[in-house]
Design brief:
It is a single chain. 20% of the residues are buried. The mean pLDDT is 82. The protein is 30% helix and 35% strand. Strands 2-8-11-10-9-12 form a six-stranded antiparallel barrel. Strands 3-5-6 form a three-stranded antiparallel beta sheet, covered by helices on one side. A two-stranded antiparallel ribbon has the order 1-17. The chain has three domains: 79 residues, conserved putative lor/sdh protein from methanococcus maripaludis s2 fold (Beta Barrel); 137 residues, no CATH class; 103 residues, no CATH class.
């Protein structure tokens, strides 16, 4: 009995000692600074300057609608041939609603007919399942963003995918339901066509060009023929105006294959060179960079006038007019790291004359296996949130690379330290 009691006491003592050691280790680790790391990655930084200006195009305003209701046949930015129908003018506003319903029904019938004709080539069911899920995700994303521009097309595409999936799983009734649905919509389409009011007038394009349904009032204030005499002062005065958009015209036709961007750049030491191509970053109704040739650059007081030209992207920029853009001078390619990852080490460097000077070296510490190792870098670009760097010796075996795990928060760090 005594032996049992002694053994129990020994076991309890060992258990208590183990718990005490565990708690001690736990508290010690709790005081240690946790290791925080992230991944470095390749990054390209555009470096340039901001400019404000106006898009200049050769534009012809189409005739006034004359109080009629306009139904555009050509889409925004669509290329048109000479004598092509651009718009229909109705005297009854109900005709516009009917025309929209006809377009919608026609598109639905085309997609449903495609699903019916393609039922023997549906592919495997698993692929169709993923397409249905992708269509649902796209539909959900559009509704969450409030973007209704392609909502109808996405809903129609989802319906088509569901029908094709039914065919793939051998649903025999799906084909019959689809045929009935097509017939029903064709009957609705016939009724709408029969009830459509007579067209009052058709507006045709006078020449080839790119159609735009928006007339903003700038068409009569600036055109390409005025660019040769344009100065920074006259452009500044032009940009200060606020033209009233015209409400009567059906739209406009942009003729000519070249369009321009006349811009004001702050300062005179811009480094812009005539004849060179620069990338301009636009915003608003078109997001992206467009390569444009600098036709003319002239200094005027404290600002610079720059005239850029382009023969592409005309259909994408019909809704743009007064813009503030970024003119990209050059691209910097390097490795992007958070600001906390860069460390400054001060060393004494010996000169040829025997003297020494204090210099700063920049390092980024990475985790390699379970140890930390410093990689010397040079700074290419500084941002409020990150640095763009590159290795001092790009050919070195031990250098910072895109994808390395960099250390952010450890202050007591050195080469070879076990950090994990």
């Amino acid at each position: 009995m005594r032996e049992s009691t002694l053994a129990t006491k020994i076991m309890i003592a060992i258990l208590c000692l183990g718990v005490a050691v565990y708690l001690a280790v736990y508290f010690v680790r709790g005081w240690e600074e946790p290791l925080v790391t992230t991944r470095a990655y390749a990054y390209t930084q555009d470096v340039g300057m901001e400019a404000s200006g106006i898009l200049v195009r050769q534009e012809t305003i189409l005739p006034d609608a004359g109080g009629s209701y306009v139904d555009h046949i050509l889409g925004e930015g669509e290329k048109a041939a000479a004598g092509q129908a651009a718009a229909l003018l109705y005297t009854d506003p109900a005709a516009l609603t009917t025309r929209q319903a006809i377009r919608t029904l026609t598109a639905e019938i085309e997609q449903l007919q495609y699903a019916l004709d393609d039922r023997t080539q549906t592919g495997d069911a698993s692929r169709l399942d993923s397409q249905v899920l992708a269509s649902i995700t796209a539909l959900r994303s559009l509704t969450a963003q409030g973007d209704l521009t392609t909502l109808e097309d996405c809903a129609l595409n989802l319906r088509t995918m569901v029908f094709k999936r039914d065919f793939a799983y051998g649903d025999g009734s799906a084909a019959g339901q689809l045929s009935q649905l097509i017939q029903s919509k064709q009957e609705q389409l016939a009724q709408l066509n029969a009830s459509l009011n007579q067209v009052a007038r058709v507006v045709y394009t006078p020449s080839t060009g790119v159609f735009s349904g928006t007339v903003d009032g700038w068409e009569g204030l600036i055109n390409p023929s005025q660019l040769d005499d344009l100065t920074a002062q006259s452009l500044s005065a032009l940009l200060s105006q606020t033209p009233a958009p015209a409400t009567g015209p059906v739209g406009k036709l942009i003729t000519g294959s070249t369009w321009y961007f006349a811009a004001l750049v702050p300062g005179t030491d811009t480094g812009l060179q005539s004849g060179k191509t620069y990338s301009l970053t636009f915003s608003g109704d078109y997001y992206g960079q467009i390569p444009m040739k600098l036709e003319r650059v002239s200094l005027d007081g404290e600002q610079t006038l720059a005239i850029f030209s382009c023969r592409t992207h005309l259909s994408d920029t019909t809704l743009l007019r007064v813009q503030t853009v970024d003119v990209v001078i050059h691209h910097l390619e390097g490795i992007r790291i958070p600001r906390k990852a860069l460390r400054v080490e001060t060393i004494e460097e010996e000169q040829e004359d025997g003297s020494t000077r204090t210099v700063n070296r920049y390092k980024v510490y990475i985790v390699e296996r379970s140890q930390s190792w410093g990689r010397e870098v040079e700074i290419l670009y500084t941002d409020e949130n990150f640095y763009l760097v590159r290795p001092v010796d790009p050919s070195a075996a031990k250098r910072l690379r895109a994808g390395d795990e960099v250390i952010l928060n450890s202050s007591d760090i050195y080469d070879g330290k076990v950090v994990r």
